[in-house]
Design brief:
Pfam families: PseudoU_synth_2. It is built from four helices and twelve strands; from the N terminus they run H-E-E-E-E-H-E-E-E-E-E-E-H-E-E-H. Strands 1, 2, 3, 4, 5, 6, 9, 10, 11 and 12 form a ten-stranded mixed β-sheet that branches. Strands 7-8 form a two-stranded antiparallel ribbon. The relative contact order is 0.17.
């Protein structure tokens, strides 16, 4: 990715906050030596400031959409408070297997990290798991797949993926929780951080940012009833 390409993905920029449209497949932190990650491109997002911006939260490697960064230490501290206290309103779009019986619901299942021989995952664990809650709403479907709006009320790793799988509707393309659903959409995880709202400054309206639907999800969403960027959300 060139500096111009990462700059073209900026959705919001002010003196304190940047929000970028993270592409699916780009890790936010360095992993194995030689792997591409967002840290390689942060210098291109300084826009005249002496320091590169830093992450205020995280997105999984295969999740696309709104990623928030702070442009200086005070901004990072304020954003840290917002995310830690659950004040950030995050909206994700997910394509899941099957159709839920209800039109909306609240998943409250504690999650615990499990180490395994070939990696790790988050499992529902009543004893020892961390409290986790995800609100969801059915936006559309084609009988085989469903389009969900998910709002994580807590910030656990893999929360939406683990919760949807736990109620019997794993995300399309999820190699960890999807039980082989990758064949339904190639190797791409069908999860998009669609929007975020941040009450950054007291007595001012929240910052509200929306990320466009990425190309790899357009066909799936259209099949589930999405009418395009200019159409209102159901």
């Amino acid at each position: 990715m060139t500096p111009e390409e990462i700059q073209s993905r900026v959705l919001h920029r002010d003196a304190s906050v940047l929000v970028i449209d993270k592409p699916a497949g780009l890790a936010v932190h360095a992993g194995r030596a030689g792997d591409e990650h967002l840290g390689l491109y942060l210098d291109a997002l300084r826009f005249g400031l002496p320091r590169s911006p830093e992450l205020a939260h995280r997105l999984d490697r295969d999740t696309s959409g709104c990623l928030v960064l702070g442009r200086h230490r005070r901004a990072l501290a304020r954003l840290g408070e917002i995310f830690a206290h659950g004040e950030a309103n995050k909206v994700y779009w997910a394509i899941v297997v099957g159709r839920p019986r209800e039109e909306e619901g609240l998943i409250e299942l504690p999650l615990k990290k499990r180490e395994a021989k070939f990696g790790w995952r988050m499992d529902v664990e009543e004893r020892g798991g961390l409290p986790s809650a995800t609100r969801w709403r059915l936006l559309g479907g084609d009988g085989r797949l469903s389009w969900l709006e998910c709002q994580p009320l807590t910030g656990r790793t893999h929360q939406i993926r683990a919760h949807c799988a736990a109620i019997g509707h794993p995300l399309v393309g999820d190699a960890i929780y999807g039980r082989g659903t990758g064949t339904l959409a190639g190797d791409r995880l069908a999860l998009h951080a669609r929007a975020v709202s941040l009450p950054f400054q007291p007595n001012r309206p929240p910052l509200s940012i929306t990320a466009p639907v990425p190309e790899h999800l357009r066909t799936l969403l259209t099949g589930c009833g999405w009418a395009g960027e200019n159409a209102p959300t159901p």
